[in-house]
Write a structure and sequence with these properties.
About 65% of the residues lie in helices and about 5% in strands. It is mainly alpha-helical and about 270 residues long. It has a domain of about 160 residues. Strand 1 and strand 2 form a beta hairpin.
C-alpha cells in the first residue's frame, strides 16, 4: 500500500478537512494584474451582519406584535447599512463578496421586514389583497437591488434610478411606527397603508431619479456653522422620532416624482 498514516499533512490537506471552504476572490492589483485574494474583510462585513440582524429582529418583533420595536429596528438597519459601505471605502476594503452580502442583507432588512411589518399591522385585515400588496413591495425591493447591482459603474453616482430600498423601508416602517405609537389600529387605515406600500414598491422599480447625496464631501473642511446645523437636525429628529422620520422619508419619496414632473413641464415649455 502507498498510504503512509504517519506522514505529516500538507496545509492544503489540512484545509480540506475543514467543514467550510475558504473564500477565494479574484481581483486586480494597482498595476492591473490579476490576483487571487483569500478570506474576507472583517470590519465592513461586521456592519453588514449587524444590518442583517436588525432586519431579522424587526421580523421577529413584527410577528410578536411589537410594531414600534420592529419599525425602530428597520431604522437601525438603515444606519448600519450606511456605515458598512462608508467604512469599506474609507479603509479600502471593498470586495465583490461584501457587495453581494450587503445586497442580501438589504433584502431582509428593507424588503422582507417592512412588508411583513405592514402586513402584520394593517394589511392582514384585507385578506388576499393585503398579502398581494405586501408581495408587490417585496418583489419591488428584490428587483431594485438586482438592478442596482447590474448598474454599478455605469450610471451617474449622484442619482439613484428608482427609490432606494432603505428609503422605501423608511416610508413603510415610519408609517407603522408613527401611527402605532398613537395607539391607532392598522386595520382602521389599511387602505391608506396599502396605497403607501404599493406606491413604495412601484417607485423602487421606476426610472425616476433620486438624489443619492454621494457627492457630499464628508472628509473636507466645512464652515463652523455646519456642525451647528447638524446638532439642530439631531435635536429636531429626537424630539419626535416617529413623526419626524416619517415626514423626512415621505418628502424624499415624493421629491423624485415632483422633480420628474417639473422636468416634463420645462421640456414642454421649451
Amino acid at each position: 500500500m502507498n498510504e503512509r498514516p504517519d506522514e505529516p499533512q500538507s496545509p492544503a490537506d489540512a484545509e480540506s478537512l475543514l467543514p467550510i471552504d475558504e473564500h477565494i476572490e479574484e481581483g486586480h492589483d494597482a498595476e492591473g494584474r490579476k490576483v487571487r485574494h483569500r478570506g474576507i474583510y472583517l470590519l465592513p462585513n461586521l456592519f453588514t451582519t449587524a444590518n442583517l440582524f436588525a432586519g431579522f429582529y424587526a421580523i421577529i418583533n413584527a410577528m410578536n406584535g411589537n410594531f414600534y420595536v420592529a419599525a425602530a429596528a428597520v431604522f437601525v438597519a438603515m444606519v448600519l447599512d450606511g456605515l458598512d459601505g462608508r467604512v469599506a471605502r474609507l479603509t479600502n476594503t471593498q470586495s465583490a463578496f461584501g457587495a453581494e452580502y450587503d445586497s442580501l442583507s438589504d433584502m431582509v432588512a428593507f424588503g422582507v421586514a417592512p412588508a411583513l411589518l405592514a402586513f402584520e399591522w394593517a394589511l392582514g385585515s384585507m385578506g388576499k389583497v393585503g398579502w398581494m400588496v405586501a408581495f408587490i413591495y417585496v418583489a419591488g425591493a428584490a428587483l431594485r437591488l438586482a438592478r442596482f447591482n447590474t448598474q454599478i459603474g455605469s450610471v451617474d453616482k449622484r442619482y439613484f434610478i428608482g427609490l432606494a430600498s432603505p428609503a422605501a423601508a423608511g416610508v413603510v416602517a415610519g408609517t407603522v411606527w408613527a401611527f402605532s405609537d398613537f395607539g391607532i389600529k392598522g386595520s382602521n387605515m389599511a387602505f391608506v397603508v396599502a396605497i403607501l406600500v404599493a406606491a413604495a414598491g412601484m417607485l423602487m422599480v421606476s426610472n425616476i431619479k433620486y438624489n443619492s447625496f454621494k457627492d457630499l464631501d464628508l472628509k473636507g473642511r466645512v464652515p463652523f456653522v455646519a456642525i451647528l446645523a447638524v446638532v439642530l437636525v439631531f435635536a429636531v429628529v429626537f424630539s419626535d422620532p416617529p413623526r419626524i422620520l416619517l415626514i423626512i422619508f415621505l418628502a424624499y419619496a415624493a421629491s423624485g416624482p415632483i422633480q420628474y414632473l417639473l422636468r416634463l413641464r420645462r421640456g414642454k415649455s421649451a
